[in-house]
Amino acid sequence: xxxxxxxxxxxxxxxxxxxxxxxxxxxxxxxxxxxxxxxxxxxxxxxxxxxxxxxxxxxxxxxxxxxxxxxxxxxxxxxxxxxxxxxxxxxxxxxxxxx
Length: 99
Hints:
Layout: H1 7-34, H2 41-49, H3 53-60, H4 71-93
Helix pairs in contact: 1-2, 1-4, 2-3, 2-4, 3-4
């Protein structure tokens, strides 16, 4: 297993971000699936937290007919975008490998 200069700090930062994305995604899915008329403030928070990929998913939902009227699929795509950004955040903050 490789060690990185800022590996532990990067894992904490990326883990906290990934946990926040997962928490907002799960809460959004529970609201969408249980509420008869959901008002998704957690969904809006998920879009903001997953910036910039979340905004691309938000703007792209009108271009892709499969996303129209499917809030569950939209929320899952936002969570996937957030998890991709978690990996990028970890890669960007971990630093170089130690010898």
